[in-house]
Amino acid sequence: MKEELSKILNSIEETDKNILKIANNRLDSLVKPPGSLGTLEEIASKLSSITGKIENKLDKRCVIIMCSDNGVVDEKVASAPQMVTLMQTINFTKGLTGVSVLANHFNCQLKVVDVGVNADIDNPQIISRKIRKSTGNIAKEPAMTEEEAIKAIMVGIEMATCAKKQGYDCIGVGEMGIGNTTTSSAVLASLLDVNIEDISKTVDRGAGLSDERFIHKINIIKKAIELNKPNSKDPIDTLSKVGGFDIAAMAGVFIGAAFCKVPVVVDGFISIVAALCAYRLNPLVKEYMFLSHHSCERGYALAMNELGLKPSLNLKMRLGEGSGCPIMFSIMDAACSVIKNMGTFEEAQIGDEYLENLTK
After folding, report:
1. Which parts of the chain sit beneath pLDDT 50?
2. What pLDDT sits at residue 349?
């Protein structure tokens, strides 16, 4: 399985820079000051570089939600009980969650995947790829074995590949797992090789903790890193020691999307940490990523800066679940419409000579 992952990582290709230039030239010819549609223009040209087409449609899109429990909840680092993971995993299929409502509103599907929920689930609407029931408690032991981490990554690659085969034009990546802001903070701190005394820079309150429990959460993350000693240069080692099945599987979706040349949307904090893991395994995956919103979680900005990408939205969101993805799909739709439907200066019978003065 390790060899298969290496083969996939080595097969990822750069996006088409020639089409990118053509798309940018097209955007500059539209009846507007150059660059005046800002991020919409950047999205449109980036999509072109991924698909190889100037005009794109994102009619069929989905959010892949990786669901798993985390043994570290035994340390009381979360405000919600572990059973919420199970209940919300099921609720995704009932349309009752935040991402469910947004997905329905913006006409996209959800693919709910069980990679490690601490319960037996018998639901045909939930894709069963359970590695095992919950990870280990990272404050006392590694989260998983290296083999399990790779297996989780391969699940994500499988889901992205299936989405491509099913005709999805764009993929979003979300999660559900009580305790996963703790594991994500531990992974981020490890990948960035943050000094143990500065761990608090990567940690926030998650779903909402008191001051006392927030300090406790920071100390648990410090303890987990000191105990397990994750290798900052090795994302798989880091995931196996202080991560989660959800984060590893999400990283796999980003890798799989790049391998299949499908645009992929990053949600919030946990999603961007998974994206960073994928980026560390092959930097080319970044060329296929679109950040949706700026998460309120403290570590988000650190991961964002490390990736060198910027989100399109700042809605003060911190729900997770992939909730930012359907909203981002609508922004991407708008970008596609601009490059396809907006008229050129020639079509609008407006001379563009005045634009030369704008660049002087």
Report:
1. none
2. 78
